[in-house]
């Protein structure tokens, strides 16, 4: 029998982060002591007040299908969150709740892009952006950035990347994988360019907004002229340590939100009912309730930068958010380590897994072939041991 898979799935890349995590699990199953610094997943338990809200929802029998776009009182909580944290006014008809922010992104791509539409992706970008765009028959247009600019795209670079086919700009701040955070001045510069191109829409992925060490998050939708053309994407996976609960959401012009609801209604329908009820408690709680996690991430960032700085050949900047470092490791290209040639970042990531028993992710998956992504969403002891092993394997 012929295995007649679609061209669509055959052309799609496997998520590099999930692939490395699967490889690490496989090696652990063989008895190897692998330290995983590849997944973007907080190592904290969900705060108890969120768990209690989920238990109440179970007792109150929230077991039926939820509305496709989310419970009304959850959308009201999301609206309050947008106003409190971002200065953005979104009505309930402008909000769609989905099964994770990844589905939110896929919804937007499928309802906004036509074949051949170009989507500007400042590189490095989150691993799934490119394939989501391609799945919707769009064309990813990478704009390279480097460590010298803190991996942030300038207004001049944006202007140069725009063509008559440009339909959207997608970016994250704080950024996965670089941890870079765009300042208000930098976002204002991008907005000034976009005001000359009124038919270009923006996807602003703000899932890491609270894991921010510079003292305040800024949304591009709050910049003059950007509200009506920005889709703000967020969720509770990162700051609330709710990765497995799968709740993401968008705030967008009502006509885009309506289209996303229509699409989602044919794909998954509404998100998990219990998780939605718990999310109300999460979003309505004072941010002080999660501040302990943010402070711990900040401490770990400082620790891992200090330790990685002792490894020759690692070029580092200081990421101001999320929980990743993205060192330039191109000094190792062309070298042979323990008999293994290192031609690129993928080779180095695999070398570290096999020789140091530390799982990282190649920067090639994020559009930057000179770097690797290292997550510090791990304990201090794991971070210290992981970097010790890496240093030993590389020197």
CATH architecture classification name of the largest domain = 3-Layer(aba) Sandwich
CATH H level, superfamily name of the largest domain: Type I PLP-dependent aspartate aminotransferase-like (Major domain)
Number of strands: 14
Return the structural class: alpha/beta
Q: Element order, helices and strands?
A: HHEHHEHEHEHEHEEEHHHEEEHEEEH
Outline the biggest β-sheet: 7 strands, mixed
Tally of separate helices:
13
What general form does the structure show?
A: globular
Number of domain units: 2
Strand content: 5-15%
Strands ordered across the widest β-sheet: 2-8-7-6-5-3-4
In the predicted model, the low-confidence regions spanning at least 5 consecutive residues are none
Oligomeric category: single chain
Radius of gyration: 21 Å
Average per-residue pLDDT, rounded, comes to 95
First-last Cα distance: 51 Å
Q: Specify the CATH class of the largest domain.
A: Alpha Beta
Might you state the CATH topology name of the largest domain? Aspartate Aminotransferase, domain 2
Helix content: 25-40%
Short description:
The chain is α/β, with parallel strands linked by helices and 395 residues long. The chain has helices spanning 7-11, 16-29, 48-59, 72-86, 101-112, 129-135, 155-161, 184-194, 254-267, 273-284, 291-308, 345-356, 380-394; strands at 35-36, 95-98, 118-123, 139-144, 166-172, 201-205, 230-235, 248-251, 324-325, 335-337, 340-342, 358-359, 361-362, 372-375. It is built from 13 helices and 14 strands.
């Amino acid at each position: 029998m012929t295995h007649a898979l679609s061209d669509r799935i055959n052309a799609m890349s496997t998520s590099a982060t999930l692939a490395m995590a699967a490889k690490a699990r496989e090696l652990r199953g063989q008895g190897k002591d692998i330290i995983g610094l590849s997944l973007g997943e907080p190592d904290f338990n969900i705060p108890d007040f969120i768990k209690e809200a989920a238990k109440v929802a179970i007792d109150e029998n929230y077991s039926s299908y939820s509305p496709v776009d989310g419970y009304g009182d959850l959308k009201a909580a999301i609206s309050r969150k947008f106003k409190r944290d971002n200065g953005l006014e979104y009505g309930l008809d402008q909000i769609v709740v989905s099964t994770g922010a990844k589905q939110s992104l896929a919804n937007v791509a499928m309802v906004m892009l036509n074949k051949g539409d170009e989507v500007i992706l400042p590189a490095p970008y989150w691993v799934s952006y490119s394939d989501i765009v391609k799945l919707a028959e769009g064309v990813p247009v990478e704009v390279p950035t480097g460590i010298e600019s803190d991996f942030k795209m300038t207004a001049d670079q944006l202007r140069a990347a725009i063509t008559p086919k440009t339909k959207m700009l997608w970016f994250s701040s704080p950024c996965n994988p670089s941890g870079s955070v765009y300042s208000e001045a930098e976002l204002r510069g991008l907005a000034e360019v976009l005001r000359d191109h009124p038919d270009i829409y923006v996807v602003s992925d703000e899932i890491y907004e609270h894991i921010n060490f510079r003292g305040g998050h800024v949304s591009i939708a709050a910049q003059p002229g950007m509200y009506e053309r920005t889709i703000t994407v967020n969720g509770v996976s990162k700051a609330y340590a709710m990765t497995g609960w799968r709740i993401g959401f968008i705030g967008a012009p009502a006509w885009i939100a309506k289209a996303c609801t229509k699409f989602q209604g044919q794909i998954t329908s509404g998100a998990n009912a219990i998780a939605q009820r718990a999310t109300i408690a999460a979003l309505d709680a004072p941010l002080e309730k999660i501040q302990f996690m943010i402070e711990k991430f900040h401490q770990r960032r400082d620790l891992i930068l200090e330790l990685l700085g002792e490894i020759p050949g690692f070029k580092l900047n200081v990421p101001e958010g999320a929980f990743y470092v993205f060192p330039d490791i191109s000094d190792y290209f062309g070298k042979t380590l323990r008999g293994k040639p290192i031609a690129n970042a993928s080779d180095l990531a695999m070398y570290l897994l096999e020789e140091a028993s530390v799982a990282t992710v190649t920067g090639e998956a994020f559009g930057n072939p000179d770097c690797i992504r290292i997550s510090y969403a791990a304990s201090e002891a794991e971070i210290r041991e992981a970097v010790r092993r890496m240093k030993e394997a590389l020197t």
